[in-house]
Amino acid sequence: MTLMNEEELARQRLFEKWVKKKSWSIHDAACLFLSIDPESEVSGPELERLQQGMQLAIDGDDLKIINSTSIGDHVLEPLVVFQWARRTGVSLPPALVALMEFIMKITMSSGSEPIPTFETPVKGGTKDVENVLGGCLAVVTNFPEECKGRGGKMKVELILKMLTKHAEILFDDGYPVLSSTAIRDIVTNWVQKLS
To answer: How many domains, the chain?
Structure first.
């Protein structure tokens, strides 16, 4: 097992934050494809080239948008713009590719039907549930073998063990304020949806 250096960990956290979002702007997508935080004030020829390419794809109906804002910004679905980038040969960061492929795997069931969203069955708030789910995604992405049992399937106990082991780097805001039973239920529900 190879541990990430500080820069890789920061990039991983950036991608984990953004893959959970329901939509991206053209700017967001272009920044992420270049491993740049979309919330930072950046510009440059490579960023502009990517944004122009996406705009041309939207204008040519090759890239579908969710809607446009009143100031003309297009709102894109992350998986759609990611698939467009792969189709068109955009060079993508491997960590983002791994996360997006994992998201595609868990959000698509038979055909292209999305898996039902997780409903919060516990007190503690949506943010705590999202933190646990983000932690699950992070450990399964970064330590897939440590999360699988002998049969090659994800195991709740092993994921919980990895969440505890890596809690300090997974949960910036501190370990979620949920009971161990609630966390187990969240992880169990998530693993069942993967199967």
So the answer is: 2
Strands 74-76, 67-68: pairing is: antiparallel
DSSP 177: S
Task: Count Cβ neighbours within 10 Å for each residue of 26-40 and write b for 16 or more, e otherwise.
Answer: bbbbbbbbbebebee
User: 151 phi and psi, to 5 degrees?
Assistant: -80, 0
Instruction: Identify whether the C-beta of residue 158 lies closer than 8 Å to the C-beta of residue 146.
Output: yes
Strand order in the sheet with 67-68: 24-25, 74-76, 67-68
Q: What is the pTM of this model?
A: 0.56
Instruction: Determine the structural domain holding residue 163 and report its residue range.
Output: 126-194
Domain end position, chosen among 91, 109, 139: 91
Per-block mean pLDDT, blocks of 10 residues, the chain (195 long): 73 86 90 92 88 87 73 78 86 87 63 37 59 83 87 88 84 71 84 76
| Residue 119: both structure tokens together | 């409903």
